[in-house]
């Protein structure tokens, strides 16, 4: 059974989410402010966090940064902020998805299921391939990346994007294919998601992120991983 932490200061939204999630056999904790959310995340270890950005004590982006300091738990942002810059800021801070208010409950639950699915460990059938470059090593079975002998901390979405590219080493993966494999079948045009996450992967894994050797952009088409 998966545990969800709902962080929102609007009681009616929290109540609706709790009812719908419990009806689908999720365990649910809730918080109305950022400090409580961070404390509950540390003590209750949720499998996914649904987070409003407009909290009374701190900005939701600060909560994301606080969580990302120690956990890779999927974070689904739920916010009335709709500008592209604000979405990118949340994604760049470490959020895995972004749903704008008002929202449809079915869509939110579908995205939550996708976030949980992306974070699940690769099973035995996923292969035990280890892909090595001169700068870093990707262990697909263990969902682990090391660089210069040290573990590299990736968010679940960063890992899923990396995994799709590595499993297609040397082949162009289209923007639409990446979006649908990583974020779900309802995606296909949100190319700014890819730009944000590719920039993060390059920053964490490339020797020179501004001149990437391994994560190659094919303008207007997609991306390719080269060893």
From TrEMBL:
Keywords: Cytoplasm, DNA-binding, Phosphoprotein, Transcription, Transcription regulation, Two-component regulatory system. GO terms for biological process: positive regulation of DNA-templated transcription. Residues 128-227 form the OmpR/PhoB-type domain. The modification 4-aspartylphosphate is found at residue 52. InterPro entries: CheY-like_superfamily (IPR011006), OmpR/PhoB-type_DNA-bd (IPR001867), Sig_transdc_resp-reg_receiver (IPR001789), WalR-like (IPR039420), WH-like_DNA-bd_sf (IPR036388). The keyword Transmembrane helix does not apply. It is found in: Cytoplasm. Residues 128-227 bind DNA. One of its GO terms (cellular component) is protein-DNA complex. Its main location: cytoplasm. Residues 3-116 form the Response regulatory domain. GO terms for molecular function: cis-regulatory region sequence-specific DNA binding; identical protein binding; phosphorelay response regulator activity. Member of the two-component regulatory system KdpD/KdpE involved in the regulation of the kdp operon. Upon phosphorylation by KdpD, functions as a transcription regulator by direct binding to promoter regions of target genes to positively regulate their expression. This is Transcriptional regulatory protein KdpE.
């Amino acid at each position: 059974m998966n545990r969800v932490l709902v962080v929102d200061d609007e009681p009616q939204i929290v109540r609706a989410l709790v009812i719908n999630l419990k009806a689908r056999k999720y365990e649910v904790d809730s918080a109305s402010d950022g400090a409580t959310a961070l404390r509950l995340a540390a003590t209750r270890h949720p499998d996914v966090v649904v987070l409003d950005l407009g909290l009374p004590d701190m900005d939701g982006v600060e909560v994301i940064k606080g969580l990302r300091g120690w956990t890779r738990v999927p974070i689904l942002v739920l916010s009335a902020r709709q500008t592209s810059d604000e979405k990118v800021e949340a994604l760049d801070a470490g959020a895995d998805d972004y749903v704008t208010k008002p929202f449809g409950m079915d869509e939110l639950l579908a995205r939550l299921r996708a976030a949980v699915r992306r974070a699940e460990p690769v099973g035995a059938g996923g292969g035990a391939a280890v892909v090595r470059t001169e700068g870093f090593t990707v262990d697909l079975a263990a969902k682990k990346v090391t660089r210069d002998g040290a573990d590299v901390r990736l968010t679940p979405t960063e890992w899923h994007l990396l995994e799709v590219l590595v499993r297609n080493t040397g082949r162009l993966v289209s923007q639409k294919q990446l979006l649908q494999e990583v974020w779900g079948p309802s995606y296909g045009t949100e190319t700014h998601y890819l730009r944000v996450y590719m920039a993060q992967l390059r920053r964490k894994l490339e020797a020179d992120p501004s001149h990437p050797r391994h994560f190659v952009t094919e303008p207007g088409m997609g991306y390719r991983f080269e060893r």
